[in-house]
Amino acid sequence: xxxLTNDGISQHALATLEKAGFEVLNIKVAxxxxxxxxxxxxxxxxxxxxxxxxxxxxxxxxxxIKLIGSTQSNxxxxxxxxxxxxxxxVINSSEAGADSIAELVFAHLLGMVRHLHQSNREMPLEGxxxxxxxxxxxxxxxxxxxTLGLVGMNSVGIxxxxxxxxxxMKVIIHDLEVNEVSIEFEFFDGQTTxxxxxxxxxxxxxxxxxxxxxxxxxQDVYLIGENQFDKMKDGVGxxxxxxxxIVDEIALxxxxxxxxxxxxxxxxxxxxxxPEIQLLMNTSLSLSPNIGSATFEAEDKISIELAAxxxxxxx
Length: 315
Description:
By secondary structure, the chain is of the alpha/beta class. It is built from 13 helices and 13 strands. Helix content is about 40%, strand content about 20%.
């Protein structure tokens, strides 16, 4: 069987697939050439990132496709339900990128409470002329002892909780599907300890959290909007590094301007790859271009997980 890999598949995974007897076509194919290439080459499976769209028309016109895999944590560029209705397997990696995303949450969080996202802009401009002034301006906060509220306890939520606990933070959680979560915390020397969490009512989480991180899949409506921001602590920190479209970005801007939200970070946006200009120009926001899983380690783990699923489903 032939597998077209277009974006972000590790060499380890490629070797695994080839060893299992698959012919791997590891080349870049432009969107406008994709249909012809699949049909002319007889491609059986696609493993793609976010650069290609696989929608109903392509699926209808490429009858050889038996499996579509996404290297992304979501599959927004794939018509998942239509593909499944045609009997096509649709797969992605559910857990392999969790540690990378959780670390990015704290890269933003630590950077925000110490004003690094702002001082990194100002030091090249005023570091030689206003060093002491900037030093006074950027007095920050410690995370130890603060409360982190996690909305959604999937693999990313669990990985984020572990880092928070390691920093000495209190963690409270809310999850609609899971009432209780046990987390095993493993240290570098093999020692382990366990933490047990009970899901709290979401308005209680809003009320009691110093910082809030959302870790949920795509929603049909905003999960966080004006009403939800109003229920949060004054001066709360808010982070979304998992999924665009779950936060009303205009409501977030208003909450920042009113002082309700003191710190805010976004790695996922409602309009990608063209985020709203109000977000990009707001110097209070810590921003990154959807790089949650963009580490060499996550790429390898995601690729290996996808390769294992391909072998299981198509061998």
